[in-house]
């Protein structure tokens, strides 16, 4: 209760918006409002941030008083602080005062609902703003999250609102369609709970409705029948049923479905079309005159309405001439549609829909007037006189059964009708009386017009004047009336006066003019005057005479004298009654013309007549001239109009000074179709001359006009919705916006672009001239991902606004993979080294080029997949194929991953899986027997694996070391399909054992096989015949040898090593130098075969006095002969072998041999030797005599040798008893061949014997007679004179029984005859094209010639087959042919020793050039002045075949190209040099012209007798002008294969690979057999006759494969090679086997040369295997002949190059020759042969190509030119090219694709359409070649050619491919058509009968190709086997689901590699629907002009989306009738097409 007596102010303390560091103060007061004293105590706050200071110390407060204090607040952090201030009252009650401290913070306030209300769907973007107010003291952040309807956009999406500020959130709504919008947007506000903004709107249609006058909805306005030419008006009410005002316009739609304009619907369709064709007029007419609405435009307020008058005025289509001829025009029915459209939707950015506009159907019929008069339209009245009336009856009949006829006769003089007007009811008649009242005489031919009256629009039928109808004549019927009123039928009688009483006015009476011939008629009138004068004959002659005159005669009565005086008529006379005498008459000259006057009068009249006639003729002449000018102007006389005329310059002032024309736009009642079309007369504006703002006065005036709704509708701006689709980030996308002005005035269109994404669009302001069209380029570029949705505002004449919606989906750059799992399967046609191959397609659906990179995902097991191209670029909206290759092996992982990384785009992973195919591998021998194996010596055996399956096999040896010392290699490998693999088993045993083990060979995807290996290890048993070698009394410097024999008593070979390295005075002489394997000095090795003996000798050559006593250092099989143990080879314990074997293995059986291994010789061979001091010294020890026969000489040659005894202090004299030494020479022991010496001794020594004491010496004379030396070229005679010590004939000084030579005097006699040495000894020139020069330079080394000696050279002429001779070789001495003086500084070629200074060199150059094919092997002969002849062999080839001159192209690939050169008589394709090499990275097209046929005849000519001549130097074969230098100084004259790291070597390797592929696939009779050149071909094969019926094909003697190069030739030629037996067994003796092989190869080369091969440089020994070649080389070294030294030749290079040339020539003469011109003609099926390279009949049209190769080029050109437009006509036709080579022109793959398309057009859509026709990068070239490779593989035509081989083609490889296609592709042309027929929705089936006439089975792979091939099926599978001499049936089915005829191609390709190869069979499959069985019948009955909806159920039988269309067939009969179905099918098929 105390608290109620104390009031605290304030009750709570709040510090708002505080800042850190500032002090905030407030006063707190506590007042005692009670009646008693109160004790008030204020307690300080607990927080230090608050500080309270009391103002007084009083604690007891009286009533009405207060206590106060100051509260201070000092914030330290930006955080909310809460505390309380406690006030204690009387210690009983406590009042808590809250203390609050709030930092600066934001405080948002906003509405949560934004309601647009009810708005119209006007296709515009409307916006509203929602405020967000920050009432706080600090800025706040807001964020908008909205993922709803994209038509609702909120901006900005985030931001910061300052304190006290308001942010307006803009909400844009696109009113493109009616709907109910209730979207939620989440607004996240700082320091505020999230607010959900509800956006509501009701979008309703901008709906126009049409009602009749009674208010009922109106959809069809029925006018009914109306006469043609009349009008009918109906009023309708147009209402705007929307909350928004709109401008509307009425359009007449004359092109919509259901429109009928003037067609008689009562007739059949055929009759209506026939009538239209007969009239020969267009089917449509201007319907704007038929239907008119008033008003045509207007404005309606919200829910407003207006009345529109619709006037229907059918117009007769007949011409005026037809109306005159035919009164009954045809009926015209009209069905038109009026569209009332709102301009609000029209000028939005979406198209109008059915709700924003209303369509009113207007129907009516125009009937012709059927008013028929009867009996006809011509009425003839009877003849009457004036005043009479004649009547006729006319019946008018109204034949129209629907409408009455209002008629009216027009008034006509003399004729009347009764009734003249009236109405005739439908189908009734009306009688009309036609009257003729003659009021004057004459004949009347008149037309009576009968008008048919009707109501029509007043004022000329214009839209503005349709305010009422008036009655007028719209049809006229003409009646032809004829009548005659004749007054001459009642002539008036003259009234004559009788003469007494004047009864008439004149004396004679009335009408007294009576002719003389009418005298009798006057008797009754005046009888008294006439009497009987007419009967009087007295004066008859006068009357007759008067009748003959030409003048007119009348009677002269008695009382007519008064009339006789008057101007008479010249042609009138009067005669008397009785006598007929001419009455006298008086002519008064005052009144009558004289004759002159009358003549003058007639002359004047004639003048006027002539003048008028002249004017008429002048006028007619001018008209004729004008017509002639018009005719002559139409003739083209070559004058260009306006040529040379310069228009005057137009100035702005001229335009402004001109009068401004107020042009009112002319627009008629144009239809919507005409308005939207762009007709021919539209003017397209040039952007360069377009005006952006009005410049002229006329433009300013027009552009300031306010357009009406009708005018605005004729300004078309579209499309109103521009959708860029998916656009990549930062890419530029362009769309066209059309501006069309249909008005006749200028229009100004301005666009407003306010977003950065469209800033590149320009220009934005356009002045559209009248009737013009212009385009605006909208450029879009964005860097933000997501949906772009933005309207663009525009205005027309700055008054009429509109919007265009621009939308796009900005996506990141991405590439599409068709699949993420790629399965690679084996391909039977690919060789093993090609691996598993497949391809993956990268699709770029974006508008920007995408750069990609493939990154392999490397795992622990590794990855053996590769992909190319690894990087590249995919063009926009294009595809790029990448090739994936798996390199298989046994242990290679079958799975791998690649990441496709798109630069600045997405990343995808491709998973690759390799699937193995089944195969079958057999061992040639299941057991390998080593037999007796020598201990500690390596032994080797081979095992052959044969693969007889379709797929390649991959193996692994599970245990490569099953026994100690036994190694199987390789551990992994591949056995190609149809080929073999070799395993090598090496065994180097360390123990004596017997073994029988099994080696398990695991095969991938196949059961493993086992190989049994057995044998035994035998120790060596070696015996040396001499046990003790003793050398006693051997003087220092002498030599002594002790022979011995080395015998091997074991059956195994033994290797014996003598190591004399420590005893250099001893050496071992072995019998065979080739058996020595001296790896270091003093070591000699000999291999002794089992049970063989070798003769050897131990030679002791001491150099100083010494003694030796040691054992012979000997090692047997690598083990040194022990001195302590007698048995060095001991058998190890069994435990050691057991431990070396695998534990638990039962496959290894090892039997230990416990006996010891000993040698026959139980003790070591001891060597003991003692060396004596030398008593004599001989100086010199060798003599050399040079004999020059041409120089003057003495009788004998002598030289001196000194013998000197040692001094007395020597040890020799101290031990010797004698004091002298006896010596003697044995001249009879000279070892010189007998043919080189005469009888007697050759050399003489004087003295020949003697003795010398200590220190004594003697000079000996050595001489010989030069005549004893026979003459010869460069003969060298070597002699050896032995010097013996002791008495001649007695014992030696050492006591030997046989004298041993003490010393030997070496004598060399050199017969220095003049000679010339040629280096190199042979010349091998590179094969060159025809007409090309091959040159080489060699050196002549002259010895013994005086300076200036002349040397001549000659070459034999070559005799051709026709008997003529030619000389293709020319020899030139560049420095002259005189031998120069010797030069000490002269450098000689390598290998020539300059022993004398007299050797000189002479340079000679040889050139070879031939214009005809020539294979030349000749001899160049050099002759000196003594007629000595020195010869060198020359081998040269000139040919015009690519397979021969390919080495020349390899050398000059970068410096020469094939071009076409036009000559005098022919066009030649030649190879010539060019200066600028073309890049090899892209396809180039050589400039070319047509070249002609080449008929090549090869000439094999050999001049000289050198059939087996050696090959000559490859270095000398290089053309110095065109060939690069080679850095190989040791290069000899043999063919060689360059190293692979050079460009030339790479070219050679490509040629070798191409050759291996072709011969592996097609070179063998039993199917594909993989070969390796040269290893497979040079192997030694022995054949054994075999029985083919058993099926065993592997029975051979050595390597279990009997196929050799002879089998290849027999298969390719079909006959046996002469000189080679059918079954040949080669000897095991190497010498005999070598001779057999040489004979075989010689026969083969001879056969090929006869066929035309250029192989003069290939010798038979070049084709030998390594062992036989080495043996042949050893035989050659023993013969003394001057030839090539093959010891330095690289055997592998020689063999590879030789076999390469042989195989290429085999292909040339046996395969290439199959290409003929006859095979080219049947393929000429194309009409477009422009640009085809013609093939001439003249020979030698090319120096590089043969006739067959030219045929191939022409074949390629023909099909490329004929198919390039057919294949790529839709995607850009590739440029025209002439193919003149087989590499560069085929690089991009287009030529091969066109070739395949010519024979296989069913591959065009599936393969070739995807190719790049213009390649700009390497990956595009690879893409094309991948497609070509896929097509070849699909057709089983691939020669293991890879896409990279086509991208960087080798001409030889491409030539082989073209030949292969030339032979095989004609088989792919369909020869027969198989038609499958049946009913619709049924399965067609047909059987193809296949018959095999051969005795072997044929297996075919069946393929269905073509665009519709997926609709066909093979129920029996895709393979078919035809048994021998039997037939089979192949079933083809087709599931018919459409009436369109389908086509496919059935291919049967032989697939078995080991069975009989069958010809490819090709059939065309076509379908035909013979009958239709309806699935359902839909009946419909509907009144005319009323829409009836028919629901037809459709079922999709396919597994994917299918498009359909409805074909309506008008049939006069029931289609369900059976007899009518065929015609229905035909009609439906024709309609469907």
How do you describe this structure in short?
With 2033 residues, the protein is mainly beta.
Largest sheet, in brief, is: 6 strands, mixed
Low-pLDDT segments, ≥5 res: 319-328, 346-354, 460-464, 653-680, 1123-1128, 1142-1146, 1154-1162, 1231-1238, 1389-1397, 1475-1531, 1583-1599, 1722-1740, ...
For the record, give the distance between the C-alpha atoms at the N and C termini, rounded to a whole number.
107 Å
Shape by Cα distribution: flat
Report the total helices.
25
Rg, rounded, reads 64 Å
Beta-strand content bin: 35-45%
Proportion in helices: 10-25%
User: Helix/strand/pairing class, anyone?
Assistant: mainly beta
Instruction: Give the rounded overall mean pLDDT.
Output: 79
Task: Write the topology of this structure.
Blueprint lengths: L5 E4 L3 E6 L5 E9 L5 E6 L6 E5 L5 E2 L4 E8 L7 E9 L3 E11 L4 E3 L2 E9 L3 E10 L5 E6 L6 E4 L2 E4 L4 E9 L4 E11 L5 E11 L2 E4 L8 E8 L4 E9 L5 E8 L6 E4 L5 H11 L11 E4 L2 E4 L4 E8 L7 H6 L6 E11 H4 L10 E11 L3 E4 L3 E3 L8 E10 L6 E5 L5 E4 L2 E4 L4 E9 L4 E16 L11 E17 L9 E2 L12 E2 L16 H4 L9 H8 L4 E4 L16 E4 L19 H39 L18 H6 L14 H5 L6 E2 L12 H7 L5 H5 L1 E4 L2 E8 L4 E9 L5 E6 L12 E4 L3 E9 L5 E11 L3 E12 L9 E4 L11 E8 L6 E8 L7 E4 L2 E4 L4 E8 L8 E8 L4 E8 L6 E3 L3 E8 L4 E9 L5 E5 L8 E4 L2 E4 L4 E8 L5 E11 L2 E13 L3 E3 L3 E8 L4 E9 ...
Parallel strand pairs: 2-9, 11-18, 20-28, 30-37, 40-41, 42-48, 44-50, 51-58, 60-67, 69-79, 81-88, 90-98, 97-101, 102-109
Antiparallel strand pairs: 1-3, 3-7, 4-6, 4-8, 5-7, 8-9, 10-12, 12-16, 13-15, 13-17, 14-16, 17-18, 19-21, 21-26, 22-25, 22-27, 23-27, 24-26, 27-28, 29-31, 31-35, 32-34, 32-36, 33-35, 36-37, 38-39, 43-45, 45-48, 46-47, 46-49, 49-50, 52-56, 53-55, 53-57, 54-56, 57-58, 59-61, 61-65, 62-64, 62-66, ...
Helix pairs in contact: 14-24, 17-18, 20-21, 21-22
């Amino acid at each position: 209760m105390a608290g109620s007596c104390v009031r605290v102010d304030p009750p709570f303390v709040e510090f708002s918006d505080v800042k850190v560091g500032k002090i905030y103060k407030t006063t707190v007061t506590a007042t005692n409002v009670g009646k008693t004293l109160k004790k008030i105590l204020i307690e300080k706050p607990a927080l230090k941030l608050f500080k309270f200071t009391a103002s007084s110390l009083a604690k007891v407060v009286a009533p009405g008083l207060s206590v106060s204090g100051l509260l201070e607040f000092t914030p330290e952090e930006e955080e909310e602080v809460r505390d309380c201030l406690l006030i204690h009252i009387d210690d009983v009650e406590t009042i808590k005062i809250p203390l609050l401290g709030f930092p600066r913070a934001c405080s948002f306030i906003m509405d949560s609902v934004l309601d647009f209300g009810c708005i119209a769907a006007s296709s515009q973007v409307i916006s509203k703003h929602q405020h967000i107010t920050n009432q706080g003291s600090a800025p706040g952040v807001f964020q908008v999250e909205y993922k709803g309807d994209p038509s609702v956009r909120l901006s900005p999406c985030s931001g910061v609102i300052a304190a006290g500020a308001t942010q307006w959130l803009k909400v844009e709504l696109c009113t493109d369609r009616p709907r109910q919008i209730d979207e939620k947007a989440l607004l996240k506000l700082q320091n505020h709970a999230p607010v959900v903004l509800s956006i509501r709107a009701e979008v309703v249609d901008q709906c126009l409705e049409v009602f009749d006058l009674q208010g009922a909805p109106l959809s069809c306005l029925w006018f009914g029948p109306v006469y043609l030419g009349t009008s009918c008006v109906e009023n309708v009410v147009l209402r705007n049923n929307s909350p928004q005002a709109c401008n509307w316009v009425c359009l007449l739609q004359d092109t919509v479905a259901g429109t009928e304009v003037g067609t008689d619907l009562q007739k059949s369709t055929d009759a209506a079309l026939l009538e239209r064709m007969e009239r020969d007029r267009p089917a449509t007419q201007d319907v704007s005159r038929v239907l008119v609405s008033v008003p045509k435009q207007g404005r309606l307020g919200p829910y407003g309405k207006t009345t529109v008058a619709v006037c229907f005025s059918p117009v007769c289509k007949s011409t005026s001439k037809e109306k005159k001829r035919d009164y009954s025009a045809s009926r015209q029915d009209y069905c038109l549609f009026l569209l009332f459209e709102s301009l609000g939707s029209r000028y939005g950015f979406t198209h109008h829909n059915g709700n924003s506009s209303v369509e009113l159907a207007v129907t009516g019929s125009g009937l012709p007037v059927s008013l028929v008069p009867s009996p006809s339209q011509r009425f003839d009245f009877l003849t009457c006189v004036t005043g009479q009336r004649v009547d006729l009856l006319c019946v008018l009949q109204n034949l129209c059964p629907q409408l009455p006829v209002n008629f009216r006769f027009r008034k006509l003089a003399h004729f009347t009708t009764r009734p003249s007007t009236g109405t005739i009811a439908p189908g009734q008649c009306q009688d009309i009386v036609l009257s003729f009242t003659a009021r004057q005489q004459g004949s009347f031919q008149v037309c009576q017009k009968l008008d048919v009256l009707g109501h029509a629009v007043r004022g000329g039928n214009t839209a503005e004047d349709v305010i009422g109808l008036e009655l007028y004549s719209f049809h006229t019927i003409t009646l032809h009336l004829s009548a005659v009123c004749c007054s001459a039928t009642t002539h008036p009688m003259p009234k004559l006066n009788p003469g007494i009483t004047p009864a008439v006015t004149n004396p004679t009476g009335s009408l007294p003019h009576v002719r003389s011939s009418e005298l009798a008629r006057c008797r009754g009138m005046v009888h008294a005057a006439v009497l009987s004068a007419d009967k009087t004959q007295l004066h008859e002659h006068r009357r007759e005479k008067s009748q003959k005159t030409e003048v007119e005669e009348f009677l002269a009565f008695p009382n007519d004298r008064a009339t006789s005086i008057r101007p008479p008529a010249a042609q009138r006379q009067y005669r008397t009654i009785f006598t007929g005498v001419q009455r006298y008459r008086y002519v008064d000259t005052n009144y009558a013309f004289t004759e002159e006057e009358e003549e003058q009068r007639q002359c004047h009249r004639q003048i006027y007549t002539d003048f008028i006639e002249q004017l008429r003729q002048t006028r007619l002449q001018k008209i004729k001239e004008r017509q002639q000018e018009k005719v002559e102007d139409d003739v083209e006389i070559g004058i260009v109009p306006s040529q040379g005329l310069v228009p005057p310059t137009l100035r702005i002032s001229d335009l402004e000074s001109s009068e401004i024309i107020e042009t009112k736009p002319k627009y008629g009642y144009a239809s919507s179709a005409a308005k939207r079309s762009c007709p021919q007369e539209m003017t397209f504006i040039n952007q360069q001359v377009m005006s952006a703002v009005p410049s002229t006065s006329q433009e300013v005036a027009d552009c300031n006009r306010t357009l009406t709704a009708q005018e605005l509708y004729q300004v078309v701006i579209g499309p109103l919705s521009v959708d860029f689709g998916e656009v990549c980030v930062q890419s530029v996308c362009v769309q066209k916006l059309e501006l069309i002005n249909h008005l006749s005035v200028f229009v100004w269109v301005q666009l407003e672009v306010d977003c950065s994404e469209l800033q590149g669009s320009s220009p934005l302001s356009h002045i559209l001239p009248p009737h013009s069209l212009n385009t605006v380029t909208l450029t879009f570029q964005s860097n933000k991902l997501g949906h772009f949705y933005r309207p663009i505002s525009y205005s027309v004449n700055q008054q009429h606004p509109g919007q265009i919606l621009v939308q796009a989906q900005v996506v990141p750059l991405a590439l599409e993979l068709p699949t993420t799992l790629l399965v690679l399967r084996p391909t039977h046609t690919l060789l093993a080294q090609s691996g598993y191959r497949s391809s993956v397609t990268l699709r770029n659906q974006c508008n920007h080029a995408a750069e990609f990179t493939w990154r392999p995902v490397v795992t622990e097991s590794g990855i053996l997949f590769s992909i190319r191209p690894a990087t590249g670029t995919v063009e926009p909206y294009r595809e790029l194929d990448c090739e994936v290759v798996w390199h298989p092996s046994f242990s290679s992982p079958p799975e791998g991953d690649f990441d496709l990384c798109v630069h600045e785009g997405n990343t995808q992973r491709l998973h690759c899986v390799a699937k193995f195919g089944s195969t079958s591998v057999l061992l040639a021998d299941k057991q390998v027997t080593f037999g007796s194996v020598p201990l500690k010596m390596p032994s080797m055996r081979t095992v052959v694996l044969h693969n007889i399956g379709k797929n390649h096999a991959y193996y692994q040896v599970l245990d490569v070391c099953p026994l100690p010392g036994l190694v199987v290699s390789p551990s992994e490998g591949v056995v190609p399909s149809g080929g073999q693999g070799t395993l090598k088993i090496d065994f180097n045993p360390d123990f004596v054992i017997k073994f029988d083990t099994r080696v398990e060979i695991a095969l991938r995807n196949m059961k493993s096989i086992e190989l049994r290996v057995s044998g035994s290890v035998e120790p060596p048993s070696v015996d040396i015949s001499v046990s003790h070698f003793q050398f006693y009394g051997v003087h220092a410097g002498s030599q002594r040898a002790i022979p011995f024999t080395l015998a091997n008593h074991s059956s195994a070979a033994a290797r014996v090593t003598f190591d004399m390295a420590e005893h250099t005075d001893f050496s071992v002489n072995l019998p065979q130098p080739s058996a020595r394997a001296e790896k270091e000095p003093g070591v000699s090795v000999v291999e002794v075969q089992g049970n063989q003996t070798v003769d050897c000798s131990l030679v002791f050559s001491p150099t100083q006095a010494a003694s030796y006593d040691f054992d012979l250092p000997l090692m047997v099989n690598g083990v040194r002969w022990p001195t302590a143990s007698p048995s060095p080879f001991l058998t190890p314990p069994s435990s050691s072998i057991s431990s070396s074997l695998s534990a638990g293995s039962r496959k290894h059986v090892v039997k230990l041999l416990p006996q010891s291994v000993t040698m026959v010789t139980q003790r070591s061979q001891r060597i003991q030797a003692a060396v004596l001091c030398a008593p004599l010294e001989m100086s010199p020890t060798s003599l050399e005599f040079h004999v020059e026969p041409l120089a003057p000489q003495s009788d004998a040659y002598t030289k001196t040798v000194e013998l000197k005894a040692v001094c007395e202090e020597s040890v020799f004299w101290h031990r010797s008893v004698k004091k002298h030494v006896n010596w003697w020479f044995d001249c009879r022991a000279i070892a010189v061949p007998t043919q080189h010496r005469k009888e007697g001794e050759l050399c003489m020594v004087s003295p020949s014997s003697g003795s010398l004491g200590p220190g004594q010496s003697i000079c000996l004379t050595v001489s010989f007679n030069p005549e004893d030396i026979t003459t010869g070229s460069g003969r060298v005679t070597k002699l050896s004179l032995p010097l013996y010590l002791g008495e001649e004939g007695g014992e030696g000084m050492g006591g030997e029984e046989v004298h041993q030579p003490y010393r030997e005097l070496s004598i060399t006699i050199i017969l220095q005859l003049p000679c010339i040495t040629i280096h190199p000894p042979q010349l091998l020139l590179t094969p060159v094209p025809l007409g090309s020069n091959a040159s080489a330079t060699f050196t002549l080394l002259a010895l013994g010639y005086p300076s200036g000696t002349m040397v001549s050279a000659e070459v034999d002429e070559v005799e051709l087959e026709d008997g003529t001779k030619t000389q293709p070789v020319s020899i030139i001495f560049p420095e002259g042919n005189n031998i120069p003086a010797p030069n000490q500084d002269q450098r000689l070629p390598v290998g020539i020793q300059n022993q004398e200074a007299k050797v000189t060199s002479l340079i000679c150059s040889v050139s070879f050039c031939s214009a005809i094919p020539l294979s030349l092997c000749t001899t160049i002969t050099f002759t000196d002045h003594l007629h000595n002849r020195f010869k060198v062999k020359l081998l040269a080839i000139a040919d015009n075949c690519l397979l021969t001159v390919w080495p020349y192209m390899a050398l000059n690939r970068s410096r020469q190209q094939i071009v076409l050169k036009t000559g005098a008589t022919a066009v030649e394709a030649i190879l010539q040099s060019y200066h600028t090499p073309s890049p090899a990275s892209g396809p180039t097209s050589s400039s070319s012209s047509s070249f002609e046929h080449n008929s090549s005849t090869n000439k094999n000519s050999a001049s000289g007798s050198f059939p087996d001549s050696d090959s000559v130097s490859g270095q000398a074969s290089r053309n110095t002008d065109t060939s690069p230098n080679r850095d190989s100084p040791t290069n000899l004259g043999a063919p060689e294969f360059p190293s692979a790291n050079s460009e030339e070597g790479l070219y050679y390797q490509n040629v070798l690979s191409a050759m291996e592929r072709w011969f592996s696939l097609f070179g063998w009779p039993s199917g594909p057999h993989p070969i390796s050149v040269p290893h497979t071909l040079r192997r030694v094969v022995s054949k054994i006759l075999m029985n083919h019926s058993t099926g065993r094909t592997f029975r051979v003697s050595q390597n279990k494969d009997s196929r050799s190069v002879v089998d290849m030739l027999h298969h390719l030629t079909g006959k046996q090679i002469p000189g080679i037996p059918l079954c040949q067994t080669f000897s095991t003796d190497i010498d005999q086997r070598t001779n057999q092989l040489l004979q075989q190869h010689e026969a083969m080369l001879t056969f090929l040369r006869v066929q035309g091969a250029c192989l003069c440089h290939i010798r038979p020994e070049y084709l030998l295997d390594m062992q036989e070649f080495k043996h042949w080389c050893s035989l050659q070294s023993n013969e003394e002949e001057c030839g090539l030294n093959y010891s330095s030749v690289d055997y592998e290079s020689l063999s590879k190059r030789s076999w390469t040339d042989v195989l290429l020539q085999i292909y040339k003469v046996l395969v290439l020759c199959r290409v003929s011109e006859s095979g080219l003609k049947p393929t000429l099926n194309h009409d477009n042969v422009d640009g085809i390279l013609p093939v001439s009949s003249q020979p030698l049209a090319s120096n590089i190509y043969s006739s067959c190769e030219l045929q191939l080029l022409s074949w390629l050109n023909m099909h490329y030119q004929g198919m390039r437009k057919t294949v790529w006509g839709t995607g850009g036709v590739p440029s025209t090219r002439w193919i003149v080579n087989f590499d560069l022109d085929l690089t991009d793959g287009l030529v091969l694709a066109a070739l395949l398309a010519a024979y296989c057009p069913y591959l065009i859509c599936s393969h070739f359409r995807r190719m790049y026709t213009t390649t700009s990068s390497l990956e595009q070239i690879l893409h094309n070649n991948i497609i070509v490779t896929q097509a070849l593989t699909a057709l089983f035509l691939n020669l293991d050619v890879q896409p990279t081989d086509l991208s960087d083609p080798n001409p030889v490889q491409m030539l082989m491919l073209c030949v292969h296609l030339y032979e095989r592709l004609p088989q792919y042309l369909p020869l027969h058509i198989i038609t499958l027929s049946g009913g619709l929705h049924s399965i067609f089936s047909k059987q193809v009968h296949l018959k095999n006439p051969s005795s072997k089975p044929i297996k075919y792979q069946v393929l269905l190709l073509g665009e519709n091939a997926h609709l066909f099926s093979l129920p029996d599978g895709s393979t078919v086997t035809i048994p021998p001499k039997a037939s089979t049936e192949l079933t083809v089915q087709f599931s018919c689901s459409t009436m369109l005829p389908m086509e496919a191609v059935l291919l049967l390709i032989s697939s078995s590699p080991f069975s009989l190869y069958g010809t490819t069979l090709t059939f065309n499959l076509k379908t035909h629907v013979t009958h239709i069985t309806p699935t359902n019948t839909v009946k419909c009955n509907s009144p005319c002009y009323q829409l009836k909806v028919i629901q037809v159920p459709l079922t999709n039988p396919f597994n994917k989306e299918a498009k359909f269309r409805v074909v309506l067939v008008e049939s006069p009969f029931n289609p369900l009738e059976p007899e009518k179905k065929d015609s229905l099918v035909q009609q439906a098929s024709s309609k469907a097409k």
